[in-house]
């Protein structure tokens, strides 16, 4: 674990008077231990990452034991549960001995494995924060009943709060994810001409991201009348002269997420297209200029909306204009009306100003902004103007 994460989590323990934090979501577990379980991502299996003042532990289904040691995750203890069985080739190497040792001491239930991890970390009394976000109510009941001697309280919100301020390493990962997304989006732009379909453009983006070592997600390419659908799957709709094209691309790198949205037009834009785009661009620039520590998240929203309406879209309306981004694509705070949460230095915001008119078209632009003591620093490298395709 990096010192930054340990410092942030220790602050939670002190503030909330807790002896331990137990993460359950893939993102919170990765934050605590650095381990990312393919098994959990695909099959939604249970996993617990325990943080205390004395060290950390991973509590996993037996199928994940080998993955932990292969990943090099630096934790002090590993306990497991479940019936997965393994075979071993003789003679055993060091890692194989560790796998067998953990497997042979497996617990019958997840709750028992969590209890053993807490005992190994010398947590036998006081209050423990359990991340409720990835647990069904029956599993929550099972775990809390098994943890005799401690008081269990919900902790999902505390873990999210710890994750708001990013470390230099996290910022580096987020910047790289964004760079990959923008480079891959540029490859799509170079491809576009009349006759290219949404599905073809999306496939190019995905291939470019993978080629650069990233993982694509949420890949949206919409053309013509399809741009008015807020969250569309790519279709076989082909680009025509005069069409708007709306890109909304996600990319993850080392578990950290980025999103970039741009709008293009096939040929010279007409007045309506140009006016609408200039309005949303004015809105995002006003929002970025508002970002600084202490400013309420709702103030960024209000400033952006006011600028958009003044610049040519008087009927513009939205429920929010962005949020935090990091290990999850959607994190706190939400840039929404009435949100009094003050921005803090070190958090990353994904700000956007989408406009959808059903029966006409849709446009969007997204930027990623690091909150610094001097204001908002835009991490995007690509220009945010309307892209005119030849």
What does this structure look like?
By secondary structure, the chain is of the alpha+beta class. It has twelve helices and 17 strands. The strands form four sheets. Strands 4-3-2-1-5-6 form a six-stranded mixed beta sheet, sandwiched between helices. The longest helix is centred in the middle third of the chain and has 24 residues. The radius of gyration is 24 Å and the shape is globular. The protein starts with a helix and ends with a strand.
Give a count of the beta strands, DSSP E runs of length 2 or more.
17
Query: What is the CATH domain class of the largest domain?
Result: Alpha Beta
Number of helices: 12
Termini gap: 49 Å
Number of domains: 2
Any idea what the shape is? globular
Rg, rounded, reads: 24 Å
Helices and strands, in N-to-C order? HEHHEEHEHHEHEHHHEEEHHEEEEEEEE
Percent range for helical residues? 25-40%
Q: Which runs of at least 5 residues are low in confidence (pLDDT < 50)?
A: none
> Quick one: biggest sheet?
6 strands, mixed
Q: How large a portion of the residues is in β-strands, by DSSP E? A: 15-25%
Give me the secondary-structure category.
alpha+beta
């Amino acid at each position: 674990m990096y010192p930054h994460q340990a410092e942030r989590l220790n602050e939670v323990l002190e503030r909330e008077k807790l002896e331990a934090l137990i993460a359950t979501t893939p993102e919170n577990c990765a934050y605590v231990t650095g381990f990312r379980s393919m098994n959990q991502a695909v099959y939604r299996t249970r996993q617990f990452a325990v943080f205390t003042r004395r060290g950390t532990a991973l509590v996993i289904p037996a199928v994940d034991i080998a993955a932990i040691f292969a990943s090099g995750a630096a934790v002090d203890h590993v306990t497991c549960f479940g019936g997965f069985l393994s075979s071993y080739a003789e003679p055993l190497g060091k890692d194989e001995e560790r796998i067998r040792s953990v497997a042979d001491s497996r617990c019958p239930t997840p709750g028992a494995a969590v209890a053993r991890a807490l005992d190994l970390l010398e947590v036998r009394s006081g209050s423990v924060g359990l991340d409720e976000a990835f647990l069904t109510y029956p599993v929550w009941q099972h775990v809390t009943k098994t943890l005799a001697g401690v008081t269990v309280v919900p902790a999902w919100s505390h873990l999210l709060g710890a994750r708001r301020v990013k470390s230099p390493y996290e910022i580096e990962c987020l910047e790289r994810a964004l760079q990959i997304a923008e480079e891959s989006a540029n490859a799509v732009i170079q491809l576009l001409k009349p006759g290219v379909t949404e599905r073809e453009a999306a496939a190019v983006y995905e291939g470019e991201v993978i080629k650069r070592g990233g993982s694509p997600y949420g890949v949206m390419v919409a053309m013509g009348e399809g741009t008015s659908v807020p969250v569309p799957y790519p279709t076989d709709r082909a680009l025509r002269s005069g069409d708007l094209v709306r890109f909304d691309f996600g990319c993850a790198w080392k578990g950290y997420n980025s999103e970039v949205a741009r709008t293009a037009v096939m040929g010279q834009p007409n007045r309506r297209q140009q006016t609408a785009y200039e309005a949303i661009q004015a809105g995002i620039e006003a929002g970025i200029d508002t970002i600084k520590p202490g400013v309420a998240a709702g103030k960024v929203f209000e400033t952006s909306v006011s600028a958009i309406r003044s610049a040519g879209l008087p009927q513009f309306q939205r429920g929010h204009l962005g949020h935090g981004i990091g290990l999850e694509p959607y994190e706190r705070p939400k840039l929404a009306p009435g949100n009094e949460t003050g921005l803090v230095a070190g958090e990353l915001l994904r700000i956007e100003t989408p406009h959808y008119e059903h029966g006409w078209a849709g446009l969007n632009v997204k930027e990623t902004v690091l909150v610094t003591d001097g204001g908002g620093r835009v991490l995007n490298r690509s220009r945010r103007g309307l892209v005119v395709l030849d």
